[in-house]
Amino acid sequence: MDFSELAIPPGSLGVFEGQAMKLMAAWGGEEEMRPCHLVFAADNGILEEGVGKYPQEVTTLLAQNVAEGKAAVSCFCACNGIPYEVIDVGLASQEQVGRNRKVRLGTRNFLKGPAMTRDEYAKAHQAGREAVREKALLGVNVFSFGEVGLGNTTTSAAVLCALSGVAPEFAVGYGANPGCHDVLMRKRQVVAEGIRKHSQLMDSPQDIIRCVGGYDIAALCGAMEECAARNIPFLLDGFITAVAFACAAKNNPQVSQVALSSHLSREPGMKYALELGGLKAEDVPLQAGLALGEGIGAVLGLTILKTILYTARHMGRMEEIMGKMAQSC
Known about the structure:
This protein is of the alpha/beta class. It has helices spanning about 15-25, 55-65, 70-80, 120-135, 150-165, 170, 180-200, 205-210, 215-230, 240-250, 255-260, 270-275, 295-315, 320-329; strands at about 35-40, 85-90, 100, 140-150, 235, 260.
């Protein structure tokens, strides 16, 4: 597909044109979009440090809501015929939600020690890879990712700061607590303390996630690396997926070649995470103030790309218009 042949001014589809071309480059040509949305759910021990206003039990309820088709992202997927799955990699509940890949009942409080062991990191990372691998074998050719987990804007900010050297003041946002200045200040303090505590242990993205991250971030990282290994494009959602992307791209630069952004989260660290992974913030298609998680921005991105691909296949060509003009003269 050559966008320069379409009956539109060159480049007039903006960033969507570039994304469609990147999608087709990963596929090696034109294909019908066969998407799947994966939501990784996990709890974070750091929540006990006052970095959020909701109790930990809420994470399981939110994940159940997604799995039962009652969440926003479930409705977005159903409306657009996109299959989705919730993958429990660490909810702090004995109850299974979605696919059971539970590593542990939530991570540990990283102010008291590493958030997870090396073995636990490996299990969460492998769960992400396996989820992509299984869907790819069923014919999925593009993924979108989301997450559910109270406290994960704190873990994501900690991972980003440790990975990039950005100060917490520039990377930590309100998360699910808009306008709660006391929570914001506490989150910044917790992130700074966590990085100081584990600074000698964090020599790689894997070590950083293990020390101050979450099982959802580890699983997302694995899923993205599996996409790169199979040359399958994927769409990011918000801040948490962007931080996982930055880590995955650090591990394997090929990840950047198949990654597509969808929207720019309200979290201040979002731009840093995208650019750390090799995506430009100015090329993000949607800037709608979304801050839900679950992956609604990524699903919207899929629907836009599907529309762009359909349009490019079916709209008229400039050559046809010029031919008609010549005939009328």
